[in-house]
Every structure is written in structure tokens, then in C-alpha cells.
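Now for today's protein:

——
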Amino acid sequence: MISLHTHLTFICVENLYKIAVVQHPPVYLNLSQSVEKAVELIKESAEGKARMVVFPETWLPGYPVWLDYAPNAGVWDHPGAKQLFRLLHENSLEIDSSLFHQLQNAAIENDCLVVMGANERVGRTIYNTIFYFHPSCEHVLHRKLMPTYTERLVWGMGDGSTLSPVKHDGHTITGLICWEHWMPLARAATRAQGEDIHIAQWPMVKDLHQIASQQYAFEGQCYVIAAGCTLTKAQMINGIKSHSKEYAEALEMIHSIPLLEQDYVLKGGSSVIKPNTEYLVSPVKEKETIIYTELNLSILSEGNLFIDTNGHYARPDVFKLTVNRNPQQNISYNDDIEG
């Protein structure tokens, strides 16, 4: 007798994507030695089977923490502030430089996507930039749209031309830097690009930053990788001393930070957050390490049952956002003018 009922078995196939978050410090304000260290950390992460390696905000060659902690950081014409800016400028990453290509080659040779936070030098201006080094030899970048508070002493403003997502292993990846996560329209612009994984770069991921990262995960129904750095006062001093030149005024300002040399100035706090806001990896604090985990991308649509801010939970008839993706320049030259 033939049964009229057919039993179907559904097999849920997990779509796993392994990532690594680097929570080691750079060689502070020493670009060449920091790139050398980054290449080794990328290799180690790839040997751990990571498909993407994420570094914190301005890991190259370090976040300008004196802006937050040194008493005279904002004093006009201060010798220490000027010398630190010069040192940061001299050690910022330039596109197509030899050090830039070392990082690109590390992504190619280790067959992984490298997400690097860097101080980027363009002429005499420094930008806070995320570089995505793709193993296909391409790169994409995002420059922080609005430096926060005292950061405006050292960084220029980015523009909408660097808001493009990155594709890797079939996944869409976006990123924002630090307090951009409190810019509602910036969040809307990145979410609208169909992200699966979002990079949230921070100097360190404090409790308030964890909240912003969790909020982003829920709004976007995506994984959020919150990357923060560890750094002691002694590591800052040693990084500056690693140069062949003397930087006495810069060191004096670092010494003025009211912490002991063994104290952490940046405490890490890196975490990985699921779309439902739960931690896949809870915050890791005051530990120099590489954090590994696997993201199950097959679950991403589950939360869209109740929220899709770029789809059925949007009201384009009421709200619309226009994003200017043209590069912004002070001066344009018209070479076609007839004499």
C-alpha cells in the first residue's frame, strides 16, 4: 500500500565564515615596524584559518590617545603637540607606498581579507581610514566622515565617496569608525547596501561603545565585529623611542598622561555580536591576543521576520536619504579654457 503522505527532511546547512580580531598593540607611532608586526599577525591569523582579519581604529601607527589624556594636548602652539602631530604625519600610511603594498601582499599571500585601521596621509592632511585589502589585489577604503571632539586637531573629514561595501566569499561587508555609529544617517547609508557583516572600529570598546555596536547589529540584522586595541603607557613611550631621531617634546607630553607606565591607556574590549544583540564573543579586556570565531551567515534572515530597516520596516514614502558619493575637493582646474 502506497502512503499518501510524503515525509520531507529539511537539512539546515550552516554557512560559516571564520574571522580573527587582532587585539595586539602596534609599535606606537612607528609605521614601518607596525607594518612588519601586522604582516606577522595576518600570517598567524591565516594559519588559524581566518578568512578575514580585523584590526582596530587607526592601528597604524596608533590612536592619538594624548588628545584624551595629556593635559596640554589642545594648548595653542604647544611644542609637544606639534611634535606629536609631525611624528604622526611622518608615520601615516600613503596609498601605493611600499608599506601599503606590503599589507596588500600580506592579504594576497595569506588569501584573506585584511581590514586595517590606519592614519592615512594625503598631502599634508591625515585621515582616519579603514583599508580593506582584498586577496584579489584590490583595495577599498572608508574615511571617517566627522572626527570627534579633539580628533579634529589631527584629522580631516572624509566624504561620501568612501561609503562603498566590500564583497568577500559572497558576503557583503561594511564598516564605520567609532562615533560614526551615533550618526543615524551614516548608519542608514551603510545598512542600505545589504550588509551581512559590519566592522565597528574603536580605539577601545568601552561599555558605551558596546551598546552602540549591539544597537547596530539589531538595526542591521547583521553580525558586528567591534574591534578595540590594547596599549600601555610604556608601549607608547617605547614606540616613540624606537625611532633613530630624538622626540623629547613628544615624550614629555606622553609622560604627562596621569597614569603609571604599566597601566593600560587602551584596554581592548573587542567583541563579536550576533544580530539578536547577544555576544558571540564577549568583550576581551586588557589582553594582547588574536580573537577567533566563526560567523554562521545562514541565520541572518531570521530576524527580518520582525525588522528590515532597508525593506518592509522602512517608509520611503515618508523618509528618504540622499547620499552624495562625489569626492569633495577644494579646487578644480578647468584645463579646457581657451587662452
